[in-house]
Amino acid sequence: MPDRLSALDASFLYLEDSATPMHVGGVAVFDRPRAGFDYEDLLALVGQRLAFLPRYRQRVLAVPGHLARPVWVDDVDFDLNYHVRRSALPAPGSDEQLFDLVARLMSRRLAPERPLWEAYFVEGLAGDRVALVTKTHQSVVDGVGTIEIGQLILDAAPQETEQAEDTWAPRRQPSRSQLMLDAVSETVQRPGELVENVRSAAADVVATAGKFSDTLGGVASALRTMARPAPSGPLNVPVSGGRVFATVRTKLADYRKVRADHGGTVNDVVLAAITGALREWLLSRGSALTPATTLRALVPMAVRDADAAEYSGVGLVGNQVDAYLVDLPVGEPNPVLRLQHIGHAMAEHLDSGRSVAARALLRVGGFAPATLHSLGARAAGSFSDRIFNLVITNSPGPQEPLYAGQARMTEMYPVIPLVRNQALAIGVTSYHGGVYFGLNGDRKALSDVDVLAGMIEESLEELKGAHW
């Protein structure tokens, strides 16, 4: 039988257009070791690991007449050099120049006729650093059979990179007649899918996408609990094709201090810092706020399958991601009260017994924040764009250093895609004592995304100095 895309994966392809490319990104910064770490080393490293992820050598092939969803087929012309690319900043390149490059790269769609991922090795950064920028389509990463490409090359200790012998041989691409025959056979067994497939291909995908949401655990229940439209505001505008990207570097110890002083969880403090920043940003734009003003965030969180063993990788990662809707109290002037409001809102989810604490996630072998961010973006893509204002994914990462070859990773930033009518998405990852924010914004609507990023730091400082 053909390796057919799931309904959810196919929806990401149908929903994609030039203004809303459906790939998740990541930016990792490395110190170049004395032994060196160059493009050829990265190429060899990725080449060594691709055997573990067959999906990265497969492309999507449409079925004639859209009689069935597309299928995954081996790319008979697979070219690793096409997917792993070399780039450079004018030395000594600044972080601002790097993030401007990231914004341009993320605004471009992946080539649909090739495997749906790219990685860029960026040289020229000041301080003898290099960066890796990755792009992986949401239809690729499911958290079970396929993880995010950035996870593929990271190790807990330095590794030697050697050019491995490539014994991979692509399977022959099915013919048009075979694709149609397979589609007809499946249609005989499930005749309702034929109508659904033609509908989706004809661009009636906004209504169709909602039917796919139940493939991500808990999404439907979240819709039932908060189905009212999200508040209107400057974050909900038609998205253009341009992007801006900004980052924030903070210390995990600061969030733990606020938690110790005022209660809640580290995740609550992260959301409170973002809420305070959004409040100041709205005020800087002249928005009229009342104590009751809120913005609604869609916050995907990993959950545990009730039938899975504790700390089971399949039970925790898999497709078990709850997309939880949280009203952020941007109208509340007191930072501690903002934190308490968020803590109460999140407690309902935590009390469900399905949520996974950060400590549990870190015990799961092979878990990586990049993959959870990808799953979170999948959850967000399953929702109507009318019920939330922005996406915030927050994934705990390892507190020990990671390496690509012999190069130590010093920073990691997620890049969460925008959906229609949402001009901002924020990804947050903790790693080796730091908490790193990646703010992906629409270039027209959020040209001042760097200002908002600075306000997150100020909001955290306000929480640290608050007395209650």
Question: What labels describe this entry?
Answer:
Diacylglycerol O-acyltransferase, 468 residues, transferase, 16 helices, 14 strands, alpha+beta
Strand order of the largest sheet: 4-5-6-1-12-11
DSSP strand tally: 14
- Please state the second-level CATH architecture of the domain at 211-465: 2-Layer Sandwich
Topology as H/E string?
HEHEEHEHEEHHHHHEHHEHEHHHEEEEEH
What is the CATH superfamily classification of the domain at 211-465? Nonribosomal peptide synthetase, condensation domain
Low-pLDDT stretches: 197-226, 304-319, 353-367
CATH topology of the domain at 211-465: Chloramphenicol Acetyltransferase
End-to-end gap = 63 Å
Q: Let me know the largest β-sheet.
A: 6 strands, mixed
The chain-level mean pLDDT equals 81
CATH class of the domain at 211-465: Alpha Beta
- Overall, the morphology is globular
What fraction of residues sit in β-strands?
Answer: 15-25%
Can you offer a commentary on this structure?
35% of the residues lie in helices and 22% in strands. A six-stranded mixed β-sheet has the order 4-5-6-1-12-11. A six-stranded mixed β-sheet has the order 7-14-13-10-8-9, sandwiched between helices. Strands 2-3 form a two-stranded antiparallel sheet. By secondary structure, the chain is α+β, with helices and mostly antiparallel strands. The termini are far apart. 48% of the residues are buried. It has a domain of 255 residues: 2-Layer Sandwich (Chloramphenicol Acetyltransferase), CATH 3.30.559.30.
